[in-house]
Amino acid sequence: MTDYLVRFDSHPEPIEVQTGALLVEAARRGGVEIRQPCGGQGRCGRCAVLIESGQVRRRSVLRLSKADLEAGYALACQTVVEGDVAVVVPPAEQIQRRLTTDHVAPEAVVPEGYDPARVQTVRRILLELSAPSMDDQTDDWGRLCTALRRATGVTRLDTTLEQIRRLGPVLRASEWRIAVTIDTGRDPNGAAHLIRVEPATVAEGAPLCGLAIDVGTTTVTVWLIDLLTGRVQFQAGEYNGQISRGEDVISRIIYGSKNDGGEELRGLVLETINTLVDSACSRTGIDATAIAKATVSGNSTMMHLLLGIPPESIRLEPFITPINHMPPLRASDVGITMNADGIVDPLPGVASYVGADITAGVLSSGLRSSPETALFIDVGTNGEMVLGSSEWLVTCACSAGPAFEGAGVLHGMRADIGAIEEVWIDGRTYEPTSRVIGDVAPRGICGSGLISLVAEMFLTGILDKGGHINQTLATPRVRRGLHGAEYVLAWSKETETGDDIVITRVDIDNLLRAKAAIYAGFNVLADRVGVPLDSAERVLIGGSFGKYINVEKAVDIGLLPDMPWERFDFLGNTSVRGAYLALLDREARAEITEIASSMTYIELSADNSFYEAFTSALFLPHTDLSRFPSVAAAMT
Q1: Where does residue 274 rank: exposed (0-12), middle (13-18), buried (19+ CB within 10 A)?
Q2: For the chain, is the Cβ count within 10 Å smaller at the N or the C terminus?
């Protein structure tokens, strides 16, 4: 047999191998480290290397995208040497980023050309009022309104009794040089709302801030924004305190309808929001009174519970919300920690199960401005989806449960330090290799890790199509636990908690129901409007967990349609980003209203085909394997 030379960029000398040898064998012979979590079966894609030159034959390309192949990548465990070859082994970090999400949108980018004086509704104006005299008997309020009208054109100013009480002392203490903070609302030529009057010397150089808030069923996210520059100063998220009273919206609606349950739920979510705001102010040194405005997005139930509006009609046929388009509110009436006279702007929703999180998401995803057909999916406790383009938008929603956000799972957690976010399993030994956020001892498993784990268990034969664990396998990883059969992902000596981290049959069932609901939802949506799903030129994935999901693993379990990888864009939390854009720009805020008003809503509970589609999708990846040709190929 002919001998060839393989040159690795990290190795000083060429390695001699015979024709037909695998690249990974050449690497092993030369002591070149190439990770193979799946045991060299070509399933994990972690041994991707770059072929700089030479002749090779790729036995399998299942884990490589079209862009990967065009760039020259190959799987070392599946690539045969057929000539002298030069190989580059990318850093592990580079491989991880490339193989998880190729198209991650940045969290927050200040809109190009941001000019607060032109697009922002919150304004702080420096005024020097003429002092009253015996010849000028104009009252304090009239004096303020006249000066403001001359400076800005505002003809009517709304205020409160408490502000009137404070006005005179402030004017005189400041010697009539003041700073006035107002919100001009959605109509710059209409009435303005007075937020604050303070001495000019105090206001000069002082911060002027806003909040973008996403109230999710599972997670609440808060951004603190400098309104003068548009920059995000602080970002934080925390589990919604309401989880202790129910993990899904229906459970919370039921709980809220009993005794004082509604007020209790309102208090729990406000406590979560205000804890995050307090943290933001503490970390940035900004006083909460400098926060003049907040835009709030969230699903319809969460918005109603936050505002103390009884949501019972949302779960009762014909499933009508008390209100979809809420007017601006005073912060003190809502209860958010900020300037008491500041504005809280709840973004508009569409229907009972398609709320402001989706209208904000459609804006921030760019779906509304694109002429091409796209599918937008917000993956969370509720699975909402929108199909359409700049010309038309159709939407529906389904209950997915909290598994994708780490809740409702025995060892589930948010995507935080210590969360297992990706898993590979050796199909011969059934031993796992995990990647943990922060590269520390694991504490639990987040949504993306759960998807990855179930996909690996299925492809290695630990799970069958129905999600049942094969208890006949010769491995201690499979055992009987308190909840039935389970797979041990990490032994107690390896974890931070000192407990085994396992996945149970109950956890798997929760994930299967969640993915089945979402897959059935967007398929029924496409069928109802007569648009083939594969005609969607882009698939836009929203939701906080979706930022780090491995598209291949999501296809393996039947969560996402089996499409070319380059069609998928992972956008992270599109709801809070939409709230951020609406906070900065009145035109973006107006566009969200237009989106909410023009979107066609389809109620899946009234569609008999949804249950059939849901039942078919309860299997791995689906009862109809022809829908998932790449998974079928991986199983052979």
Answers
A1: middle
A2: C
